[in-house]
Amino acid sequence: MQKSILNRFIAKFNLNGTADKVVLTASKDGLSTRFMSDDRHVIGEVSTPDLTLDDGEYAVYETPQLRNILTVLGDEITAKVQTNKSGK
To answer: CB neighbours of 27 closer than 8 A, spacing ≥ 6?
Structure first.
């Protein structure tokens, strides 16, 4: 996936730090999220067909930390999802 598209997607739900905790939903249609500002004054939904992950839900608890991690990565990002199938 292109880092610039992911950064734009994050910027649309993060609203300059207003909504830092979200659950991203990945499906065959792309990536989407619903968000609410901490003070509950802003509620919205953002989606894009241009970003794909394995189907599922992914919690982001610290959006600023995610954005910082993205700064050190190249323009093209490959994300793999690993699960613990043993239940441990």
So the answer is: 55
